[in-house]
Amino acid sequence: MLPRSSLKPVSVALFSVALAACTVTPLGATDDGIAKARAASAPGADLYERECSSCHGKRGEGLTTSPAVMGIGALPTYPRDDSSSSSTIFTSGPTPTTDNARVPGQSKRGPFRTAQDVFDYVSARMPLPKSRAGTLKPEEYWAIVNYLLVANNIAVPAGGVTEANAKSVAVH
Length: 172
Fold this sequence. Notes:
This protein is mainly alpha-helical. 39% of the residues lie in helices and 0% in strands. The protein has a domain at 27-75 and 112-168: Orthogonal Bundle (Cytochrome Bc1 Complex, Chain D, domain 2), CATH 1.10.760.10. It has helices spanning 4-21, 31-40, 42-51, 53-56, 115-125, 138-151. It is globular and about 65 Å long. Residues 84-100 have low confidence and may be disordered.
């Protein structure tokens, strides 16, 4: 048995190891991802900060009922189930063409398979409230999409994603 005076340093060391193991990785984009995205699309970073971060968070982690747009689980093929408190993310399944073809509980948006899908969604439905949806210029939406993709470590063509190449840029 160890003397009582030897237990204190051992206890402190064990506590320190346990504390380090319990640290939480921040949700959303990594610092490196944000830095790369800002370098690749400074206008997109500024627009994201101004138009998107109040709902989706500065790191894109998602706030309250707004989904994550950067980091783990962001931009899933299909969104989380909006009809329940479940945080399940649908990442595969049939492509719905009408509300009748949707998987039960699945949101009404189409799948995010390419950068074009993301652009089509955000340019028609963002920013909120609904009265502001679609009010940004197309080049502003493209800048935001570029920022999001780079922050999510998705390879984008030299010069960024544009209308001309967006269908060829896979999100997953």
